[in-house]
């Protein structure tokens, strides 16, 4: 699959001395939905701002649609639509005028049919003659998305697009993202709603402390790092795990009424049958069994935790 965004050896150090990005490499494929995850301050917005030409890197190169974002800014930027976190629109303009003007900024000829389609896709058509100042926060967010799509970009960045919005808009956003992907638009999504990434993304990138911790196919990531848990509800409480079972990956709940057995979802030999036999051999009766598989959120938390531990260890060694 063709690469539409190529990032090489990207560094960003601000005047304060804070290093936001560190030797970052990333390729994003044409037509995919790529979810960029990371805690606050991890470098997500800085990375997006550099790719979109808003922030200058300290070092490194970025190609967007085959154009260098610094040396060929206008050509590269014309390929990109950006929906930022902040709601920044002209409060006294109408929805129609705002979106139409945004298209003109990129030198695109007038195309009322295209603007109409965008507004209808975003449930803004009935608001087209309303001034921005009269709209709710959710409607203003929709206008920001319409502006980003006005010049028919090949690449769309959605930086926390559903932060603080209602469930209806979030659902509309998901539907719109799928429609755009079908048209061949490449979408880069940052979100704190892990469910969005799990629902929409083809690939996942996790960034922390300015470094990419991992980039992988979503399904492959779930298989490689996902764990499954067997929860065994006991008939009578235990005070501790019996010595005969101490070698197994078991944890006992605080009330002693549930044992949790963790196993690899990829392993054909899960170990469940031997566990149940050992419980019976040790006179432990159970009332119910249920399984739970790791979510993307579990994996994300695990990766960030590991990254923090690695940073702490590296800091101690350098000291």
Automatic annotation (TrEMBL):
PANTHER family: ABC TRANSPORTER ATP-BINDING PROTEIN
Keywords: ATP-binding, Nucleotide-binding, Transport
Entry annotated with the keyword ATP-binding: yes
Protein known as: ABC-type multidrug transport system, ATPase component
The organism's taxonomic lineage, starting at the top: Bacteria, Pseudomonadati, Pseudomonadota, Gammaproteobacteria, Oceanospirillales
Pfam families named in the record: ABC_tran
Keyword Nuclease listed: no
SMART domains in the record: AAA
Residue ranges of every copy of the ABC transporter domain listed in the record: 5-234
InterPro entries, per the entry: AAA+_ATPase, ABC_transporter-like_ATP-bd, ABC_transporter-like_CS, ABC_transporter_ATP-binding, P-loop_NTPase
Organism per entry: Alcanivorax dieselolei (strain DSM 16502 / CGMCC 1.3690 / MCCC 1A00001 / B-5) (Alloalcanivorax dieselolei)
CDD domains: ABC_DR_subfamily_A (cd03230)
Gene Ontology molecular functions: ATP binding; ATP hydrolysis activity
Source taxon at top rank: Bacteria
